[in-house]
Sequence to fold (223 residues):
Amino acid sequence: NAGVTQTPKFQVLKTGQSMTLQCAQDMNHEYMSWYRQDPGMGLRLIHYSVGAGITDQGEVPNGYNVSRSTTEDFPLRLLSAAPSQTSVYFCASSGNWNTEAFFGQGTRLTVV
Amino acid sequence: KNEVEQSPQNLTAQEGEFITINCSYSVGISALHWLQQHPGGGIVSLFMLSSGKKKHGRLIATINIQEKHSSLHITASHPRDSAVYICAVRFGGGSNYKLTFGKGTLLTVNP
Fold:
């Protein structure tokens, strides 16, 4: 059972470039979310989805887009990368609001 | 504002010591999670609590709903326990899926 799979693990972008961080889960979970982790701060919610076709903004959504065309996949798109988006990104999923959360291994993104 | 506070921020212990990490939150919650993150690594769920106490091996998690407080205890600590421990809560009731995270406690266990 693979759980939550994130790709890539590391990425360096130039300012203005775009890219997509991939997230897939094989547990048939309804809820998926993207967080960013910055030094000295707790994880912050970027976007989330409560099911296929349903997405919503979290705490820090600016500069990011998401879509949820299938239950399994929840990609995060950076439209025009900025140095402020240098961070570690985590994808997570859970089956219900009162069940365990599963996290991916993280993507370390550097924007130069 | 819904907040999650952890203490201490940093903790250094000798192998074998009993460890306690604390988490307090501002308003009512439906669930509290304890997570572990090794340096440069992913995040692993240790416990999910809504009441009482849970135990897994040398780890024990407790929650006091009335006092809005949870503790994570590690008995007979070992250098491999060195990691960041993160408390996360789901505020409110019903179907609120969102997690609010504390800033984490960096635990270092020396041999």
